[in-house]
C-alpha cells in the first residue's frame, strides 16, 4: 500500500535528539528535511545521512518567514507527512535575574515558532487529509526544575498545545502527539550535568533505571508516534525517561 516515499520535517535536526530522529527516519526510508540555524552543520549531517536527507537553513524564531519556508519545501518536495518540532533553546538563570527579553526569546523559539510552523504545515496536511505531528516537551513540564523558568513555561505550553491541536485536527486525519524526554546523554545535557555533580547525582538518584537515556531512545518513540504504528494514538504525552517522572 505504501506507494510514495513519506516526507518528514525535523527541526533542530543537525544535533542531539533531532539528529537521532532524522537518522531513524532515513533508515526507515523516509525522506527527511532537517531545519536548523547552522548551515555548515546541516550540510555535513545531510552529507553523512545520504540522499534521503535534505536541509533548509533557517532561524525558526523569525516566525514571519515561516510561511515562505514551508511553501519552498512544498514546492520542492511536496506536502510533508510528518512534522517533528524538536528545536529548542534553554538558559539557566536564577528566577529574579531572567529579563523580559530572556523570557521572550525562549518563548519565541520554543513555543511561538512551533505554533507558526505547525500552522503552516497543517494547511498542507489538511489538503492531503492526513499527517502526523510530534512535539518534544521536557521533564520541566512534569515537575518543577529550578533556574529554567522560561523553558518550563514553553514546554508546559507545548503539552497543552499538543492536546488542543490533537482535539481539533484529529477529525481531519492529522494526529498530534508529544514525546517528553527524561535526561538524555547529549552534548547539551553533558554540559549541564558534568559541571554539576550534585545535579547529576540527583538526576540519576530519582531515575529508577539509574542511567541516562540515549538519543536513539527518543528517536524510537518519535518514530512510533509519527508513523502508522500509532495510527489510533493522538493527544498523548509519551514520557521516555527511565521512570524519572514517577521516581523518587
TrEMBL record:
<dbReference type="GO" id="GO:0030497">
    <property type="term" value="P:fatty acid elongation"/>
</dbReference>
<dbReference type="InterPro" id="IPR020904">
    <property type="entry name" value="Sc_DH/Rdtase_CS"/>
</dbReference>
<dbReference type="GO" id="GO:0016616">
    <property type="term" value="F:oxidoreductase activity, acting on the CH-OH group of donors, NAD or NADP as acceptor"/>
</dbReference>
<dbReference type="InterPro" id="IPR002347">
    <property type="entry name" value="SDR_fam"/>
</dbReference>
<dbReference type="InterPro" id="IPR036291">
    <property type="entry name" value="NAD(P)-bd_dom_sf"/>
</dbReference>
<dbReference type="Pfam" id="PF13561">
    <property type="entry name" value="adh_short_C2"/>
</dbReference>
<protein>
    <submittedName>
        <fullName>SDR family oxidoreductase</fullName>
    </submittedName>
</protein>
<comment type="similarity">
    <text>Belongs to the short-chain dehydrogenases/reductases (SDR) family.</text>
</comment>
Amino acid at each position: 500500500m505504501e506507494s510514495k516515499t513519506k516526507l518528514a520535517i525535523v527541526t533542530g535536526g543537525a544535533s542531539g535528539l533531532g539528529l537521532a530522529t532524522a537518522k531513524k527516519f532515513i533508515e526507515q526510508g523516509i525522506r527527511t528535511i532537517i531545519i536548523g540555524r547552522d548551515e555548515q552543520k546541516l550540510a555535513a549531517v545531510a552529507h553523512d545521512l545520504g540522499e534521503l536527507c535534505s536541509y533548509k537553513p533557517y532561524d525558526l524564531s523569525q516566525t514571519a518567514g515561516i510561511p515562505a519556508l514551508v511553501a519552498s519545501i512544498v514546492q520542492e518536495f511536496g506536502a510533508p507527512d510528518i512534522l517533528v518540532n524538536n528545536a529548542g533553546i534553554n538558559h539557566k538563570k536564577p528566577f529574579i535575574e531572567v529579563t523580559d527579553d530572556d523570557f521572550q526569546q525562549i518563548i519565541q523559539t520554543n513555543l511561538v515558532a512551533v505554533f507558526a510552523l505547525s500552522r503552516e504545515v497543517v494547511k498542507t496536511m489538511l489538503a492531503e487529509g492526513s499527517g502526523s505531528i510530534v512535539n518534544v516537551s521536557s521533564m520541566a513540564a512534569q515537575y518543577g526544575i529550578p533556574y529554567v523558568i522560561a523553558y518550563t513555561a514553553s514546554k508546559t505550553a507545548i503539552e497543552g498545545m499538543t492536546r488542543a491541536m490533537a482535539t481539533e485536527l484529529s477529525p481531519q486525519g492529522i494526529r498530534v502527539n508529544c514525546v517528553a524526554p527524561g535526561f538524555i546523554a547529549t552534548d547539551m545535557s553533558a554540559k549541564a550535568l558534568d559541571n554539576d555533580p550534585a545535579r547529576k547525582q540527583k538526576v540519576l538518584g530519582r531515575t529508577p533505571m539509574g542511567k541516562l537515556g540515549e538519543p536513539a531512545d527518543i528517536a524510537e518513540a518519535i518514530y512510533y508516534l509519527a508513523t502508522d504504528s500509532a495510527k489510533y494514538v493522538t493527544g498523548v504525552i509519551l514520557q521516555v525517561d527511565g521512570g524519572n517522572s514517577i521516581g523518587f
